[in-house]
Amino acid sequence: MNTSNKPSQETLDKWQNDPANWKLFVFYINKEDKRIFPPKRSKLGWTINFANPKSILAMVGIVIAAMSIVKLVRFIFPNLWT
Q1: So where are the chain's domains?
Q2: CA end-to-end span of the chain, whole Å?
Q3: pLDDT under 50 in the chain at which residues?
Q4: Is 60 exposed, middle or buried (0-12, 13-18, 19+ CB in 10 A)?
Q5: What percent of the chain has pLDDT over 90?
């Protein structure tokens, strides 16, 4: 991304603090914000920008990776959950 097209920190903070960009106080949806994982409102951790298609793919990837790890552990240690 070109630095001339990158929004200022003030703009990013304005988007993050705007209640219109938060649905049900949890889901961040802002088409103008191109970040995949913007910080949460509380500044502790990150959330997903559900308006960015890349973030949806990232979320699906994370879920698939987690499920694969669980299946691999169950395959390697079949008696672990008996």
Answers
A1: 9-76
A2: 50
A3: 1
A4: exposed
A5: 71
